[in-house]
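Teaching soon. Got one?

===
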Amino acid sequence: MESVPSVRDETPRVNILMVDDSPDKLLALESALESLGQNLVKASSGEQALRLLLKREFALILLDVNMPGMDGFETASLIRQRRSLQKIPIIFVTSLSTTEAEIFKGYEFGAVDYILTPVLPEILRTKVGVFVELWRGQHELRQQAEVLKR
């Protein structure tokens, strides 16, 4: 008897970019998200994140606010300046208590959410899972539109 592949087996894995200067925080994000079965790509700086964004497509960016050199706000600002990257959702991840002004600043740079660390894995998985499914739906629509154009 043949086994029928599950929907998860047939669906391509999407790329999720995790940006944090702390290896421990990157590891915590990775452990919380590994059960989603997606490609988790790590960057330790804003500069490294920008280079990765030019090389592949990402469904979501988890971005630390407080990093040395280029902080999360500056990184988000540079991401938003590039037309091909403007629609990638950004979730800011921070251990700092955020003021309303900082939260609004983050939303101005395209943040869709703020998550305070330590991160609750269940909440992070749920939020990231929603954006993965949204990306898949949009990707499928783009593919169908291309087929119809031909």
